[in-house]
Design goal:
Layout lengths: L1 H9 L6 H14 L12 H8 L3 H14 L2 E2 L7 E2 L6 H5 L38 H13 L15 H15 L8 E4 L2 H12 L5 E6 L4 H8 L3 E8 L2 E2 L11 E4 L13 H14 L2 E5 L24 E6 L11 E4 L5 H10 L6 H12 L2 H27 L4 E2 L8 E6 L5 H9 L6 E2 L11 E5 L5 H14 L2
Parallel strand pairs: 4-5, 4-7, 7-8, 8-9
Antiparallel strand pairs: 1-2, 3-10, 5-6, 9-10, 11-12, 12-14, 13-14
Length: 471
């Protein structure tokens, strides 16, 4: 009786008394404070002793009896059920050790935005068209019956597929039908779906070297044998000697990450011919081709594919914001059914009202206006970054002429490893991604400098801190 009185006293105030007392009695039974076989007084006696309403106590006892913590019989006292309270303790490990797997490792873990200069991977988040986007989302959200809120079109609403494909045909030379377009939460989700479609344990997959680290995370999770193919002045290189045929080839032909080189036509044709001959699926990651500062962007590799071996991946993370959680995948017709099935089974879906708002944004010309504005601003920043570094005339730095993209890959010929310098620069509030951290064969030295977050007015001072940190 005393234990019940204590539990009742502990359960007063705050949230529901029924909920609190139920939780307290559960815990007391499991930890032995209320031993099995303990007889509970009648609800009238308990109500008088505790000051709680009888209906409250009845509700608590009925709930615990239903869950198996109490035993009630007609004409007999309610008793605490006989439960082996040590079973759970025996099943638990003696210490809390995190569960890990060698197959699932984050090569590119997300980090908070603490430093703006020269962080890579993010656009100018302050340029996000907040008011226009809010208007489009609100309009679609206020009229939910105007679109299908069921499970239909999980891989993309027809309105967005069609609007996006018109944009991709005009801007990137992508050739496809709307049903070949999938809308997914991220480019990483697209890579995962494609890897599940064509790569199994032990299968060979080619990636660029250096390359985007996230693709290695995906391929490792599939148990693939990842082969790092060196990148030269024309992009990913093809082997001259006989080697294991890849099932998947990952490449960034329009603006190689991180070196920034563009794959010329002869290399593109050689890659397509090789992929068709060995039956490989080429994953074209067109992550930031919108940022072109001289002439028009080079058309996509997908637009040259006549054998159905290129899957084209794009994202709104670099043009709008990663927080939108929206990307797109254009698959060859013969892969469509399998890829849609995998995406659906995996639960990769983007909220309906966001898809409709994006379709309106593209079809109404808002996306094009936004692209013109942000590419102009990014072009000015990256040109200023290159010019400022060139004026320093540091012979240890190899500074390329920027052609496109949101980052500049600067070569380093100094004696101190780029990783050490990058760590030192953090103290000066400068982020310089070490090029060697993206390499898996030949360890190139250099720094990848992003301009998405740093204002133009801060670039020269940030460069001063970077140059001072080189030693």
């Amino acid at each position: 009786m005393s234990t019940l009185l204590e539990l009742a006293a502990e359960s007063r105030g705050g949230a529901s008394v029924v909920l609190q007392l139920t939780q307290a009695m559960r815990a007391a039974i499991l930890n032995g404070r209320l031993p099995g076989g303990t007889r509970l007084p009648g609800t009238r006696v308990l109500a008088k002793a505790t000051g709680l309403g009888r209906s409250t106590l009845v509700e608590v006892i009925e709930q615990l009896a239903m869950e198996g913590y109490l035993e009630t019989r007609q004409g007999a006292h309610t008793r605490v059920a006989s439960i082996d309270t040590h079973a759970g303790a025996r099943a638990r490990p003696s210490s809390v050790v995190p569960v890990r797997s060698d197959l699932w490792v984050l090569d590119d873990p997300p980090t908070p935005v603490d430093i703006r200069a020269f962080r890579t991977g993010l656009p100018d988040l302050r340029s996000f068209p907040s008011q226009e986007w809010a208007t489009l989302v609100a309009r679609r959200s206020r009229r939910p019956i105007s679109h299908d809120l069921s499970y239909a079109h999980q891989c993309g609403l027809p309105a967005l597929r069609e609007a996006l494909l018109v944009h991709l045909r005009q801007a990137r030379g992508v050739l496809a039908e709307p049903e070949q377009v999938l809308i997914l939460p991220s480019a990483q989700a697209a890579f995962s779906v494609l890897a599940q479609a064509c790569v199994g344990p032990g299968d060979t997959a080619w990636v660029e070297d250096p390359c985007y680290p996230g693709i290695r995370s995906v391929l490792r999770s599939r148990g693939a044998a990842v082969v790092a193919r060196p990148v030269d002045h024309a992009g990913i290189t093809l082997p001259q000697e006989h080697s294991a045929a890849p099932k998947l080839i990952y490449t960034t032909p329009s603006h190689q990450f991180p070196t920034g080189v563009t794959m010329p036509l002869p290399r593109r044709l050689d890659l397509l011919e090789h992929a068709a001959r060995v039956g490989a699926l080429v994953v074209e990651d067109d992550y930031d081709s919108e940022y072109q500062y001289h002439g028009h962007p080079v058309p996509s590799l997908q637009g040259l594919d006549t054998q159905g071996c290129v899957a084209y991946v794009g994202t709104f993370s670099k043009t709008l914001a990663p927080g939108l959680r929206m990307a797109y995948l254009v698959v060859p017709q013969r892969w469509r059914a399998l890829v849609e099935t995998i995406a659906t089974v995996s639960g990769y879906a983007v909220p309906v009202h966001l898809q409709l708002a994006m379709g309106d944004f593209i079809a109404g010309g808002g996306f094009q206006r936004h692209l013109r504005r942000i590419t102009s601003e990014a072009g000015e920043r990256i040109q200023l970054l290159a010019q400022t570094l060139q004026r320093a005339q540091d012979p240890r730095l190899d500074i390329p002429t920027p052609q496109g993209g949101l980052q500049l890959c600067v070569g380093w010929k100094g004696e101190t490893p780029d990783t050490d310098i990058a760590q030192r620069l953090l103290e000066a509030e400068v982020m310089a991604l070490p090029l060697s951290s993206l390499c898996h064969g030949v360890q190139r030295q250099g720094f990848v400098l992003g301009v998405g977050l740093v204002p133009k007015t801060e670039i020269e001072s940030a460069c001063g801190r970077l140059l001072a940190g080189l030693g």
